[in-house]
Design brief:
alpha+beta, N-terminal domain of MutM-like DNA repair proteins, binds zinc ion, 4-stranded antiparallel β-sheet, 278 residues, Helicase, Ruva Protein, domain 3
């Protein structure tokens, strides 16, 4: 599943290629993904210029100029991928397998491919973006200023839930997926099963720093998704970062040599070092 670092990588790739370009054509191969797509309204973007490629959590926000300053919201779901190709002349290439929509901006073709179709495509005016049902209840961005140690400390008070599960709760903070939650807890020296309410302020400082570090490193590497992936351009593969604990059950800790443990917590695979994490 594309995680925040992968989506951020796609965002940067899109921004490099379509910023300032005008929509020339929009085509749909079907009318719905996990929910209906606003086909007519998105076709009506023809002639509008792309003014920004933003991201909120795992949603890509492609902004356009003109009346209402519309924003196209793209979610990659479980298996969505975005390709951007150069096109010349009038004719577009044949549809790829599982390609559901595509948009030509200038001489660039943005193609959305999603075999499992859990992704989403929507359109909203800039004014309605914050209250859009997909975005309204999201917690702060993990790399933004709102997610700091004081915030995390406040959100953990009185909570019995395991800290790793709390980190993965999008109402608390967005975009800390399963791999990143395990890796962040390791780096902070906090056992993933510890009750969130038992974290000290010092633990929260370490955990916020750890989450930022793990996500930023992963963004620099282009994401960690553990299978064959193609990014914004066909030649930009997804790199698997060197993970400290995730997927390493039974192997020695890179810091202390103890055997990495594994358990299922909240239905998700969880890894930790029994000596480095308390
Ligand atoms: Zn260790």
């Amino acid at each position: 599943m594309p995680e925040l670092p992968e989506v951020e990588t796609v965002r940067r790739g899109l921004a490099q290629r379509i910023l300032g370009e005008r929509v020339r054509e929009v085509e749909f191969a079907r009318a719905d993904l996990r929910r209906p797509m606003p086909v007519a309204a998105i076709r009506a973007l023809r002639g509008r210029r792309c003014t920004a490629c933003d991201r909120r959590s795992k949603y890509l926000l492609i902004r356009f100029d003109g009346v209402g300053e519309p924003v196209v919201i793209v979610h990659l779901g479980m298996s969505g991928r975005v390709f951007v190709e150069d096109v010349h002349g009038r004719s577009l290439p044949p549809w790829r397998p599982h390609e559901h929509w595509r948009m030509r901006l200038g001489d660039r073709l943005v193609r959305y491919v999603d075999p499992r179709r859990f992704g989403a495509l929507d359109l909203v005016d800039a004014e309605g973006l914050a209250s859009h049902p997909l975005l309204a209840s999201l917690g702060p961005e993990p790399l933004g200023p709102e997610f700091d140690a004081e915030y995390l400390f406040a959100r953990t008070r009185g909570r019995k839930v395991a800290i790793k599960q709390l980190l993965m709760d999008a109402h608390v903070v967005v975009g800390v997926g399963n791999i990143y939650a395990s890796e962040s807890c390791f780096r902070a020296g906090v056992r993933p099963s510890r009750a969130a309410g038992r974290l000290t302020r010092a633990d929260c400082v370490k955990l916020v720093d750890a989450a930022r570090h793990v996500l930023e490193r992963s963004i620099r590497a282009g994401g960690t998704t553990l299978r064959d992936y193609v990014g914004v351009a066909e030649d930009s593969g997804w790199f698997q970062r060197e993970l400290a604990v995730y997927g390493r059950a039974g192997e020695p800790c890179r810091v202390c040599g103890a055997t990495i443990r594994h358990a299922v917590m909240g239905q998700r695979a969880t890894y930790w070092c029994p000596r480095c994490q308390r």
